[in-house]
């Protein structure tokens, strides 16, 4: 048996070694693949044999055993084709690695030997670097995606023959290299300047964006809830390179990476329809792929008409909203994906949407039944809950404009920079909404008047611990907007007004 270290295949975050053994037998050639491979891995037998016989090579008239080590770890995907083919060529001495170097190899083969692009190449390239490899061979179409990883020399090829010639010592025909990605804020077609007569809710949207707080907007149809939500991503701060790498990895695994030549620079904005299943929102399927909450990582998840979502689906959000990650378990796979998103929700106050207006024809029972679709625990996780008033379009001043996204983004970035400096030595924390109980005690110091006000509110309404902490986080963000070291009385007052409550301190949406 020969261990072909030169054909080091990589899957996900785990490295696998491809061992090839050939034995002379009578009759037709036989190829076996062992090592807990899925259907795509098993079918590599046909693709590899055809690719070798259709080129300048031949499939050996022997028994070929491909061992994917370690044998107790499941392997998935068609990207093992190229390392298996190279392993056979090296074992049968049809080619020789004259470069004397170790290469990571990723690639699916077509029947004629051409290399096909695959999904998940970016996390595989990162895994290759973590395994200590410095050189990686990939299909040409995945070259730019893999080249994003620093400290890794990536070679792209279109055909198995080209890879073999390269290993034999032929000079590499370099494909146009990837230009370093810029980190300027990408342009947007939407702008908050289009939103008029909604200054109050926009102020709270800015606070939500500044601290990463979840936001619930409740209002009549046509008052601008969706219009506002669609523009939130235009005022979020620019992603760091580390955040962009995390988001790009998720989209690569999900097969949704559109521009494979660069990292995703803009923060994600995901708006699934209200008939979305639990699996599509949380993640799942046969291969436990990422769901909408992971695709919205470091961005915005917008649930329009939230009350129309399945109650089971909404309840499934509770744990990811707290843990900021989700574990998807299936019979064959168990994957954990990050899910650090800002939840923005919009809904009507009743089925017809005109509750409290003469136009409303809903009975009390219908209103109660409609509002009970949103449970108390879900509402408790919404940091900011505001009603959005209707607007009179006939009173718009044609010459007046609301604040632009550029202006609002400057305020958001000022606050986020303070938070970034505050949490720079704390791993996994980037904004106020992510603070735990210990961090709240450390960084949410109240001035005397502010402490007296929050004490009075607590004694009157008897908030739960989660609700109290939500108020403290929002108050901290209000203070950051003015650069205040301590939380002032006005910050506490503004935070207490971040939720529109009834006289008993209960959310207006929970009856």
- Shape category: elongated
The N- and C-terminal alpha carbons lie at a distance of 71 Å
Largest sheet: 7 strands, mixed
CATH architecture of the largest domain: 3-Layer(aba) Sandwich
Number of strands: 18
Low-confidence stretches: 1-14, 177-185
The helix-and-strand class reads alpha/beta
Number of self-contained structural domains: 3
Radius of gyration: 28 Å
As laid out across the biggest beta sheet, the strand order is 3-4-2-1-5-8-9
Report what the structure shows:
The chain is 35% helix and 17% strand. The protein has 511 residues and is of the alpha/beta class. It has 3 domains: 166 residues, Ribosomal Protein S5, domain 2, CATH 3.30.230; 211 residues, 3-Layer(aba) Sandwich (Rossmann fold), CATH 3.40.50.300; 77 residues, Orthogonal Bundle (Helicase, Ruva Protein, domain 3), CATH 1.10.8. The strands form 5 sheets. The protein has a 7-stranded mixed sheet with strand order 3-4-2-1-5-8-9. It has a 5-stranded parallel sheet with strand order 11-14-17-10-18. It has a two-stranded antiparallel sheet with strand order 6-7. α7 crosses α19, α18 runs parallel beside α20 and α19 crosses α20. The longest helix has 18 residues. The protein is elongated. The N terminus is likely disordered.
